Amino acid sequence: MRSVALPSRVVRAARTHSRAFSSRSLIPDEPVKPQVLTAAVPGPQSLAISKEIDQIQDARTHVLVADYEKSSGNYLVDADNNVLLDVFGQISSIALGYNVPQLIELAKSVSLAEKKVTQPLTLPQKEFITAALNRPALGSFPPKDWAKWLEEGLLTVRPKGLDQLVTTLCGSSANETAFKAACMAYRNRERGGAAFTQEELDSCMLNHAPGSPELVVLSFKSGFHGRLFGSLSATRSKAIHKIDVPAFDWPVAPFPNTQYPLAENEAANKAEEARCLAEYEEILVQHKKTRPVAAVIIEPILSEGGDCHASPEYFRQLRLIAKKHDAYFIVDEVQTGVGATGTFWAHEKWGLKEGEEPDFVTFSKKMQQAGIFHKLDTRPNAPYRNYNTWMGDPMRTLQARELIKVIRDNNLVEHTAATGKKLSATLADIFSRNQGVVSNHRGQNDGTFQAFDFETPAKRDAFVTKMRANGIQVGGCGDRSTRLRPTLTFGDAHLAILAEGIEKTLKQI
């Protein structure tokens, strides 16, 4: 692919970023550009392997079949040896890229142990071997260094005001855990900390009140919070996620139908946010009479539902109104967390003051380990309440510790914020020359976590498919949106390739 000159304002922005980072400093063997060898992606080998998998597991959602051994850095290699620049990142789940040598060294220790190779191992390697080969029932038999591993890793990035941590298996289970903790804390507060009554203990075994109380969780139109029973009841992004599955009768509040760019539509958006906030508060008021809202859950950017944005003040008011009506407030950072928006946690941009912090922040995806951060007053009042056999995975906790170290050592959150500014300027330049084809570019102040719309779902799907044929993997969301989810090591060289790919593809669809 030929090189693309970045807009002059992007070059000026790059010059002001004194500590430039290159992914090749972490991943020396990363490819320099995409290479597509087949007429279409997926190619014949991917299609054949998908057909084989389909004999035992539904393969209809397959995009391609990957060769992860060959993939490197920001490039995903498929079974046909096509090399794609991956700016979707396994649905926003890859923090640094594929096969990062520093992480390979950590994982390599397990292979050495299995082969009984005698050579000195570092302490992190020894810990990783122990965690990988002896997966414990964490709630009952934690490893002796468990507190140390948490303090050196996950707790170093805990959100402000939250010093408690529960590790879980995935993003959906993180949200389910937060729902349970919120309901338990709500009822404990109502009882004034008193012991359970015999009536409560007996009735819960029949799924009846008062032991199974009529509490609800409020979520927002277009929100996505997972696919388990409770999290699916709070999910509002697409009907195909929910159809045929019994659901809790939980309320849904409107999310602002925001106009983009945000800076050019401030007055209209402020009025729309005020309308939605009023309706949201009315739902809380009305439910308090019969089925109180125990928890409110919101994503800082409603990702699966179409990358929907609102102002920091809107989110701050959501939190304050929830507090006013005694509802716990859950921020779902499963997709937005771990640096992609130019701050480690996206909700850091809301300007919350001391005492306004969320009650829970859930995480997964880029962190590799899932879980919830919360406050001491939302710890269950008895053991075995937020509990299961594995309660996460110590190996993934150690992987998260290493990821966090790499992110910090290389200033990758700051790098992503700077790269995001260049990406915003580059896309604005491209879209200004393609008006009527692409609209609603958003995320300009959110690092590389950006999106844009096409006129129809078919046009969006054609764009995503053709981008892949042109050597770039992007993702869709909502009905007609394309989302960008690069790794934290995505930089100038990748941006130039992405820009050329978008320019080329817009002319082809």
TrEMBL record:
Q: Which cofactor does it need?
A: pyridoxal 5'-phosphate
Listed transmembrane segments: none
Write the record's keywords in alphabetical order, separated by commas.
Aminotransferase, Pyridoxal phosphate, Transferase
Q: Name one GO biological process term.
A: gamma-aminobutyric acid catabolic process
**Could you confirm whether the keyword Transferase appears in this record?**
yes
Catalysed transformations (reactions) = 4-aminobutanoate + 2-oxoglutarate = succinate semialdehyde + L-glutamate
**InterPro entries on file:** 4NH2But_aminotransferase_euk (IPR004631), Aminotrans_3 (IPR005814), PyrdxlP-dep_Trfase (IPR015424), PyrdxlP-dep_Trfase_major (IPR015421), PyrdxlP-dep_Trfase_small (IPR015422)
Respond yes or no to whether keyword Transferase is given for this record: yes
Query: Per the record, a Pfam family?
Result: Aminotran_3
Gene3D superfamilies named among the record's database cross-references? Aspartate Aminotransferase, domain 1, Type I PLP-dependent aspartate aminotransferase-like (Major domain)
Q: Which SUPFAM superfamilies match?
A: PLP-dependent transferases (SSF53383)
Molecular functions per Gene Ontology: 4-aminobutyrate:2-oxoglutarate transaminase activity; pyridoxal phosphate binding
**Which family, according to UniProt?**
Belongs to the class-III pyridoxal-phosphate-dependent aminotransferase family.
| GO CC aspect terms | mitochondrion
Q: What is this protein called?
A: 4-aminobutyrate aminotransferase
Q: What is its EC number?
A: 2.6.1.19
Give the top-rank taxon of the lineage listed in the UniProt record for this protein.
Eukaryota
